């Protein structure tokens, strides 16, 4: 690892941040959304080495178990939703610290964060043209009623379902660079990923996916195994988008 991880507060909430060494000026940034275990990329060299090689900076905000939604989650904040926090505090931070505009930020997420990254990209495709999700937990409404913060965020399982990724897809406005993957042994979340593929295909929304590679199910063995493909996809998408502005 050539760069440096630091932890700091952004608008009063913790975030882990990866900076490149010395005076290296990044062209692109990665906004990483963590899983339900609140695992950021601090101790994940499979990702960090790619940040070094591709000269990417990264911010990993701590979102607790808010599922990166636009619903109030008390353990995250009694008033500000996780989505609003990302848009109002984290995105401006990229510009303030590195001069990176929103469209030069790639969304990356794993599990809970994977579905959060996809939903954020579909809701705000003008801001986030590039998104990659590893093992996204898309059908998280299935957790409703199990005593998690989801029970307080939504009035019913159906209301929760209406807020999942597929319900935010617009047939003519979507991010041009979409990638996601899931291990076929990931029984809890595989079907939701397949359903997303079916809907995107039916609407003619271009996307790349890998639903056949096996490398450990819903685990960091798999997440690390898919790191290179996901991060390179982000970089290539951001590179293509940067040329459109020339």
What attributes does this structure have?
single chain, about 250 residues, alpha/beta, Rossmann fold, eight-stranded mixed β-sheet, 8 strands, about 20% strand, globular
Give an overview in words.
With 246 residues, this protein is α/β, with parallel strands linked by helices. The chain has one domain: 3-Layer(aba) Sandwich (Rossmann fold). 35% of the residues lie in helices and 18% in strands. The protein has an eight-stranded mixed sheet with strand order 1-2-4-3-5-6-7-8, sandwiched between helices. Helix 3 links the parallel strand 5 and strand 6. The longest helix has 18 residues. The two termini are 32 Å apart.
Radius of gyration, CA atoms, in whole angstroms: 17 Å
Cα end-to-end separation = 32 Å
At the third CATH level, what is the topology name? Rossmann fold
Strand order of the largest sheet: 1-2-4-3-5-6-7-8
Q: So what's the CATH class? A: Alpha Beta
Mean pLDDT: 96
List segments where confidence is low: pLDDT < 50 over at least 5 consecutive residues.
Answer: none
Q: Say which CATH homologous superfamily is assigned.
A: Alpha/Beta hydrolase fold, catalytic domain
Quote the beta fraction.
15-25%
User: Main sheet, how many strands, which sense, barrel?
Assistant: 8 strands, mixed
How many strands in all?
8
Write down the secondary-structure element order: EEEHEHEHEHHEHEHH
């Amino acid at each position: 690892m050539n760069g440096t991880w630091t932890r700091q507060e952004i608008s009063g909430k913790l975030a882990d941040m990866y900076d490149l060494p010395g005076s290296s000026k990044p062209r692109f940034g990665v906004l990483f959304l963590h899983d339900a275990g609140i695992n950021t990329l601090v101790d994940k060299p499979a990702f960090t080495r790619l940040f070094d090689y591709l000269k990417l900076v990264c911010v990993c905000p701590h979102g607790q178990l808010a599922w990166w939604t636009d619903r109030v989650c008390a353990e995250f904040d009694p008033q500000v939703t996780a989505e609003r926090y990302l848009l109002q505090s984290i995105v401006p931070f990229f510009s303030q610290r590195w001069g990176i505009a929103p469209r030069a930020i790639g969304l990356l997420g794993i599990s809970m964060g994977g579905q959060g990254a996809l939903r954020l990209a579909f809701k705000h495709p003008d801001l986030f043209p590039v998104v990659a999700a590893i093992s996204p937990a898309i059908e998280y409404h299935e957790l409703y009623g199990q005593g998690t913060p989801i029970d307080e965020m939504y009035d019913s399982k159906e209301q929760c379902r209406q807020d999942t990724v597929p319900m935010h897809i617009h047939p003519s406005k979507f991010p041009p660079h979409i990638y996601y993957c899931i291990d076929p042994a990931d029984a809890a979340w595989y079907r939701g990923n397949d359903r997303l593929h079916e809907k995107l295909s039916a609407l003619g929304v271009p996307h790349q996916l890998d639903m056949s590679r096996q490398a450990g199910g819903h685990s960091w063995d798999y997440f690390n195994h898919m790191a290179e493909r996901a991060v390179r996809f982000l970089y290539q998408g951001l590179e293509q988008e940067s040329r459109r502005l020339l």
